[in-house]
Amino acid sequence: MVSRVTDDYERMALAGCQAVCEPAFWAGFDRSAAAGFSDYFSQLTEHEPRRAAKFGLKHFCWLCINSKEAEDVKLAEEVIALIPPLLDRPNVLGIGEIGLNKNSRNEMRVLEMQVELAARHEQLILVHTPHLEDKLKGTKLILSVLKNDRRIKPERVIIDHVEEHTVELVLDTGMWAGMTLYPETKCTPARAIDILERYGSERLWLNSACDWGASDPLAVPKTALEMKRRGHLAGAIEKVVFENPKRFLSQSGHFQLGESW
Amino acid sequence: MGLEVDEGRGIVIVMTRQQVLDLYFLDARHKLIEIAAFLDRVERANGPGGSPGHDDDFRLKAFRAAIGELAPEKKEKAKNVLLVFSDKSTEPIEKAPGKGAVGAWLVDG
Prior knowledge:
By secondary structure, chain A is an alpha/beta fold. Helix content of chain A is 43%, strand content 14%.
């Protein structure tokens, strides 16, 4: 996890996590050239797996140019051109997290380019939906792009950061929905469990935000504990925090977990 | 716990109302007082948007509209609060004005 200290890998391993799935995302600042992304992709596919392996954690990643840097279409084209040769690297799961940030025309164009990339190379897709007031509109725009491309199989797409006002829109398409656990925005553990109780766990799963802002790599284990406090059965908890992500991610031939310890 | 299983939608656990209150009341009470204190703080402060009826800051206007979704007879409170704060337009904007979001959209009226 490029934005986290090594101690976080250790804490995740101690909490029982078996793997980390890290999307390509914003660095907290705009990179000035495609070469910056080339280095970043090397970090995601070479360096971070070694760092995680020191604690028995498997490390997987997604590749893309994120929507916060998608206003510059020329830069996006250069970055997207870097990706195809990297898709065979053993920890790459697919294209992500693509999506929208402020719902602009250029962001839409870059989203379409990356959906095309995923379709052409038969890759899984991880989608970031916008923050706060932009989420509802952005989710609708993203779903329209994905539904309009007949090559995209809904069961091979996860739409992330859903909340109460977007989860149904996503599940109705047949795509997976991810609930990102965050201390201040997106979902808290209690709200995520409310959504699970309301909509069922067939195509829903949880992820811990682990980025530059206030976030908690142990948010998923803490949500499992919260489910236990509410009286959820062990099998139901296991399904949400482990079996569901495994079922989705195993559609990528690269996703293989080692022996647990 | 009051366990109900719905095979069609996966496992659904439903706590009794008593159990929900026992587990979450103090936390919700704490958050409600924080909201009340926030409104007191805003209304004490000088400048526009400081009192009911003079909410010319769109965020405060949206906030008060969202509180209206908490009335006992309203359903799906969390979903509808989120909808109050959401941009309801449907077309992409010409150019991103920046990267951040502020948490509210302009409410008509």
